[in-house]
Design goal:
The complex is a heterodimer.
Chain A lengths: L1 H26 L8 H16 L4 H23 L5 H20 L1 H4 L21 H23 L2 H11 L1 H6 L4 H27 L9 H14 L6 H15 L10 H22 L14
Chain B lengths: L1 E10 L2 E11 L4 E5 L6 H8 L7 E6 L2 E2 L5 H6 L2 E3 L12 H7 L9 H6 L1 H21 L15 H13 L5 E5 L7 H16 L3 E5 L3 H7 L2 E6 L2 E6 L1 H6 L1 H8 L7
Parallel strand pairs in B: 3-8, 3-9, 6-7, 7-8
Antiparallel strand pairs in B: 1-2, 1-4, 4-5, 9-10
Helix pairs in contact in B: 3-5, 3-6
């Protein structure tokens, strides 16, 4: 029972994470391969602040603000390049973030990580707090879902799609393309920060090893599998990916092969991502009918 | 309204536009003709900010626009079409028009949450405006169709509609009739003449000389990046430099 609650909490946190990336990747067409940095930033900021005595809700809000500001600050130089180069710039940023966490021991305790991150006061610690935490993440997920829906079913979302389809046309329409992209990255980063904070307070221990490229691939997979540029796609994708990942634990794998499972899992995720891009580019929930189809 | 002074643009060793100067007065339809590769489209890209000019200056309504980004030029009231159609294929024809409208409140994040009613009101008025423009273009029956399903010519008309959503002062059209059937060309001509009467100024690149003669009071001719003629279409046809640019020089036997 506790295990099921645990899987649901993870799936909900990943739903938020995936929805936040979808704002950039799905709507604005920005392939941000460093999105995990903002998840990590949310986790670290919220963990550090709450460990120093600030109440968890306040710490989470600060984490979201910090991630959002960092997102906007990264966006300005990173958006000077486009397409694949933007992807590389963000990828490098995420690696820089991880290295800073690894090396600035005075702040982050380096590879030792931060233990004992508290949960909100009204939620019991440990296994007893699972139902309460599930409720918290469910409410947060619903809130993020409604927020993103309002944001995307609007002139803002429509203009992001214009930029994704044809940037020159967007400019000819008089749209400030750079500003709209920065806004989408900032909003995506705020929500990624929330996902990271929720994760940190749930798992109660974080270290730089939690914020690697693997996490980025996982969240990209959630968005692409579920359906880019749709409201339900990332949620569906996150649930599918998390449940699949957990189901692997129950495969009857001989004991002596266990050490291969974790690396294999990463390869399988990457393989699925390649397959989807080739065979099912619109994901499980396609964004639109194809003209002529 | 538009003043171009000594505009020069080269790509490496290729001089695409060389020291071009001219002025467009207020009102009317002006043509720009010239052989392929003579620099007409490059000039349009410069005027709308998509290319940076190397030398020279461009003024639009007394604003210097030579080095402004495209979106700022568009917001000043100078809109353009592209040589090849660029529909947003997965949006309906109506949404293609609405998306093109400038100054949308709902493009900013806060009003979406703090003043949704205002955003909604503006959406409704943009929808009505788009409807009116689609009526003008006789595209109203296709309003809900995906833009990607329209014929090439219909897409060109739709793109003119998108431009009109911005209430531009000056419209630059890059070969508006290329590749579309004669019926739609007639419709386009009618629309352009009606816009002209409403006070929208039009500047178009066109290869169809009879059409240019019909529409334009004034025509510019470019060849090899230089402006070689400015005057009425009738004079252009008789001008030896223009004839030479199109047909080549006569070889005199000794």
């Amino acid at each position: 029972m506790d295990y099921i609650l645990h899987v649901f909490i993870l799936a909900l946190i990943y739903s938020i994470f995936a929805m936040s990336l979808n704002l950039e990747l799905g709507y604005a067409g920005l392939y941000n391969f460093g999105h995990v940095a903002f998840f990590g930033m949310g986790a670290y900021v919220s963990a550090l602040l709450s460990r120093s005595g600030i109440p968890v809700p306040g710490a989470m809000l600060c984490a979201m603000a910090a991630a959002g500001i960092a997102g906007a600050l990264l966006a300005v130089p990173a958006l000077r390049v486009t397409g694949d180069y933007f992807g590389i710039a963000t990828l490098v940023f995420a690696e820089m973030f991880r290295l800073v966490c690894l090396n600035e021991r005075w702040l982050t305790k380096g590879p030792m990580g931060l233990p004992g991150i508290p949960r909100p006061a009204w939620i019991a610690p440990g296994v007893d707090g699972l139902p309460g935490y599930l409720l918290l993440t469910a409410v947060a997920t619903a809130g993020v879902f409604l927020f993103v829906r309002q944001l995307t079913r609007s002139p803002f979302g429509r203009s992001l799609k214009v930029i994704r389809e044809d940037e020159h046309i967007a400019q000819a329409f008089g749209k400030n393309v750079l500003l709209l992209k920065i806004k989408s990255i900032a909003a995506g980063s705020v929500l990624a920060g929330l996902a990271g904070a929720l994760w940190a307070h749930y798992i109660s221990y974080i270290s730089p090893a939690d914020f690697t490229l693997t996490e980025t691939i996982l969240v990209v997979l959630c968005v692409v599998l579920g359906g880019r540029g749709t409201n339900w796609g990332p949620v569906l994708g996150a649930f599918a990916v998390i449940f699949f990942g957990e189901a692997v634990r129950f495969l009857p794998i001989p004991h002596e092969l266990h050490r291969y499972v974790a690396p294999l899992q990463g390869m399988v995720y990457g393989g699925i991502l390649v397959l989807i891009v080739l065979k099912l580019p619109d994901g499980m929930i396609p964004e639109h009918r194809r003209p002529g189809a | 309204m538009l003043r171009v002074q000594n505009v020069t643009k080269s790509f490496g060793a290729l001089m695409a536009v060389h020291d071009v100067s001219f002025e467009l007065g207020d009102g009317g339809i002006t043509g720009m003709v010239g052989p392929n590769g003579s620099g007409k489209s490059t000039l349009f890209h410069i005027l709308t900010g998509f290319y940076k000019l190397d030398r020279g200056e461009v003024f639009f309504n007394r604003h210097s626009i030579g080095n402004r980004p495209p979106y700022q030029i568009s917001r000043l009231g100078l809109s353009r079409s592209f040589q090849h159609t660029r529909p947003l294929p997965f949006m309906s024809v109506r949404d293609n028009l609405i998306a093109a409208a400038p100054g949308q409140i709902g493009e900013r994040i806060w009003p979406l949450f703090l003043a949704p009613a205002r955003v909604h009101r503006q959406e409704r008025s943009l929808r009505e405006k788009a409807g009116g423009i689609l009526d003008l273009l006789e595209l109203a029956p296709l309003a809900a169709e995906l833009a990607g399903r329209l014929s090439y010519g219909q897409q060109k008309l739709m793109e003119l509609g998108r431009i009109l959503m911005a209430d531009p002062r000056l419209v630059l059209l890059d070969e508006p009739t290329a590749g579309i059937n004669p019926t739609l060309i007639r419709r386009l001509v009618e629309v352009l003449q009606r816009l002209c009467k409403r006070g929208v100024q039009i500047f178009l690149i066109e290869h169809n000389m009879p059409l240019v003669a019909e529409l334009c009071r004034h025509v510019f001719v470019m060849d090899s990046g230089e402006l070689i003629f400015s005057g009425t279409p009738e004079h252009a046809r008789r001008d030896p430099r223009v004839v030479e640019a199109y047909l080549g020089r006569e070889i005199h036997a000794a």
